[in-house]
Amino acid sequence: MLCAGKKSYFAAAVCIMTVTSMLAVSYLKLQRPSHQPKVIQEGRRCRGKIAISTITPLEGNKTFIISPYFDDRESKVTRVIGIVHHEDVKQLYCWFCCQVNGKIYVSKAKIDVHSDRFGFPYGATDIVCSEPKNCDPTHVSIHQSPYGNIDQLPRFEIKNRKPETFSVDFTVCISAMFGNYNNVLQFIQSMEMYKILGVQKVVIYKNNCSHLMEKVLKFYIEEGTVEVIPWPINSHLRVSYSWRFLQDGTHIGYYGQITALNDCIYRNMERSKFVVLNDADEIILPLKHPDWKTMMNSLQKQNPGASVFLFENHIFPETVSSHTFNISSWNTVPGVNILQHVYKEPVRNKVENPRKMIVDPRKVIQTSVHSVLRAFGKSVYVPVDVALIYHCRKGLQGNLPRESLIRDTTLWRYNSSLITNVNKVLSQTMLQTQN
């Protein structure tokens, strides 16, 4: 006996209390789910309804699941891309159902809200759970509790379970298309420039766009270039058109752009050598190389160990145009003709130009819009004499006189191929007015 030889009542009482405490602690440890998976049920089949929506709210509407991805770069985990309220969501659990042995495992999630939340109450979040060692689960459910009935929980397919060989070299991620987007001509020009530069796939997180734009997207989907991911985020949260929180009752910034970018990286991790993070009105223009493949081969040789390449943004105001390439048959198509905008704003003193990125997706853990938050490998600023971002949009420096702008006709190197390709698209989508 633990307390043998103790004659004092006081000593006996202390002994009893000690044993009771030890038993209580042991019991609580057994009952409290740890970050390691624990079997809670056996002999069950996985019956939960499989989620098919891009954005799935959990009970209480404080947690929204986008998609889970298998990630074994540091340890064997399921990394769920989601959106959570940074204060109200404190505990989540991953429920794994192993078809092989009929066991249901639960492990406590690590909730990692991304640091670039910009003051909004909801932010992009990694919900990370250790996987069972003796099975490779194909689906996972997320719940606020380690107890309950798994049959009542939505099941999410765990993507990236099987390694794939790269099907493409470059994938462009565009997030998010919203505001009844109708800049049709510039979108087609950007798409054709991407293809000229070596892009095989463009992934678009679409909230909404015009009827005309839908027609163009349909063309590119059927061509095999575009993949559209429905992005109905405003059905679940009050969204802001800005990245900055203005205490106006909105929940998340810029239509959840950061969440979409992170999902796009993981979605293409096993199928694309590089992922390009930019907007539809931005084109990374190489100055020393004919295309992106040649450029990236050179940059990787010069920067061994780099996984993130950042390109400086340069604004070409859409209000300042050249008469060159005023193609009359394009004038009936809504949107900007980028070939007519070859004057860029000068670099502002003491203001750092934002950057966009080409990344090795297998090395990125978390990304923001203009930089990565966590990655294996270093980030490299690409010199502006190697490449820059051609960004045709509303100017940022007011009404600068034309003589203050810098003429840059790099885009015109591609004019012949670009005009031919754009005309083909306009003709096949019946958007072009014949002369």
From TrEMBL:
Its EC number is 2.4.1.-. GO terms for cellular component: cytoplasm; membrane. It is an enzyme of class 2 (transferase). GO terms for molecular function: glycosyltransferase activity. It is found in: Membrane. Signal peptide: none annotated. InterPro entries: Glyco_transf_92, Nucleotide-diphossugar_trans. The chain crosses the membrane at residues 9-28. The keyword Cell wall biogenesis/degradation does not apply. Keywords: Glycosyltransferase, Membrane, Transferase, Transmembrane, Transmembrane helix. It is a single-pass membrane protein. It holds the Pfam family Glyco_transf_92. Belongs to the glycosyltransferase 92 family. This is Glycosyltransferase family 92 protein. The lineage of its organism: Eukaryota, Metazoa, Chordata, Craniata, Vertebrata.
